[in-house]
Specification:
The chain contains 14 helices and twelve strands. A six-stranded mixed beta sheet has the order 1-12-2-3-4-5. A hairpin with a 2-residue loop joins strand 10 and strand 11. Helix 1 packs antiparallel against helix 2, helix 2 crosses helix 3 and helix 3 crosses helix 5.
Length: 383
């Protein structure tokens, strides 16, 4: 495992620990009038805080119902951590201001311990309700239609291309969720289906154990299903994931191109490949050397960095994913700063760009501030 990946993972673990400690201390102080509950609080908090990591370790070695429960518990806790951190941070800022300029109402100053406990209960209740509705949103991907024209000739004057990314198949996104996606894909009656990376959520063994690959066999696409790798294929076992889905009618484009009914599909290896397994990936210019750009070209590139390269190399449509639009508001303000397009459509010169927020979820099975999607592109051709 590359040193850079180990350093990154270590930083994530340290941040996870610090955030959990910050939340724990506030909960501990909220129980100042209920000290008998503190031992139970410690036990529950430690189990919940460590559940995702413990579940992942168990899943890799001896997957059971227990590992599933721990993974699910930890995944929901990730989402709750975000909102606890924000709310408690704001509370501490108010407390700091109150230290210098008293702003608390009289009834809070006289009953501070009780007020703290009441606030804690309200916070837990509010966050739980938000997470519940975020979960309902996350399990219902919407089919979204987008029509546009590519001014290049093609024998087919129109094609319907269904594209989705970031399914993250595994323990959280299981058989029923994938079955729903497949039914919605088929409802579009696609000519071509494109999978934009992170089909598998890391380790492919949970997907294989659940027989998720079989559901790809039931996708109805006139000219095939084409996929690229994402960073999560590389976090797991990319070769095993690719072989597994290739056995179920998925054709991988790994720094390669293919002509389908006169339309060229170009698929890039994920940009995380050099970091995670030391292998490089070809530049877009190299991939485009053998491509006839007088005919329509669609590029699949999981992470939407350097969108100008697609425009410079004669690409007509770039489809990407990866961002999830942060998945949980207000973290989307961060992805908007990191990516030129965090979610949605943009035209750069003659190049159409679409960045999907994804059909599934990673980590928290929750979406707040965005909707999971399956894109249905109705493309008209003609120069």
């Amino acid at each position: 495992m590359p040193a850079r990946f180990i350093v990154f993972f270590s930083i994530v673990l340290v941040l996870h620990g610090l955030i959990n400690y910050y939340i724990f201390i506030h909960g501990w102080h909220a129980l100042v009038s209920y000290t008998a509950l503190r031992p139970y609080y410690i036990a529950v908090f430690v189990v919940v805080a460590l559940s995702y990591l413990t579940g992942q370790v168990l899943e890799r070695n001896a997957p059971t119902i227990l590992s599933d429960v721990l993974v699910w518990t930890g995944a929901f806790w990730f989402a709750m951590m975000v909102y606890f951190l924000i709310a408690l941070g704001l509370l501490d800022i108010i407390r700091l201001v109150n230290h210098f300029v008293p702003i608390y109402p009289e009834f809070i100053r006289q009953n501070y311990a009780t007020a703290r406990t009441v606030f804690a209960l309200m916070l837990v209740g509010g966050v739980t309700i938000a997470i519940f509705f975020g979960y309902l949103n996350a399990i219902n991907p919407r089919v979204k239609h987008l029509a546009f024209k590519i001014d290049k000739p093609l024998a087919h004057k129109k094609l319907r291309i269904v594209a989705l990314s970031d399914q993250h198949l595994g323990t959280i996104i299981g058989r029923s969720r994938l079955q729903d996606m497949v039914e919605k894909i088929n409802s579009c009656d696609p000519d071509i289906v494109l999978l934009g990376g992170d089909q598998v959520d890391g380790d492919p063994r949970p997907s294989m154990a659940r027989g998720l690959g079989e559901l790809f066999d039931s996708i109805h696409s006139r000219y095939g299903i084409f996929a690229i790798t994402g960073n999560h294929e590389y976090i797991g076992d990319v070769e095993k994931s690719c072989v597994y889905l290739a056995e179920h009618n998925v054709r991988w484009l790994r720094d390669t191109s293919v002509v389908v009914e006169g339309l060229t599909l170009v698929g890039r290896e994920d940009r995380s490949a050099p970091t995670i397994n030391g292998k490089g990936r070809k530049s877009l210019a190299e991939l485009m050397q053998t491509v006839d750009t007088s005919k329509p070209v669609i590029l699949l590139d999981h992470q939407p960095f350097h969108l100008e390269e697609a425009e410079e190399n004669g690409v007509d449509l770039q489809f990407s994913g990866h961002t999830h639009h942060a998945q949980i508001w207000p973290l989307s303000y961060i992805t908007k700063r990191v990516y030129e397009v965090s979610w949605g459509y943009k035209k750069k010169g003659n190049t159409h760009v679409y960045v999907s927020c994804g059909a599934g979820t990673w980590g928290p099975p929750v979406r707040i501030g965005n909707t999971p999607e399956i894109m249905c592109f109705d493309i008209e051709f003609g120069g």
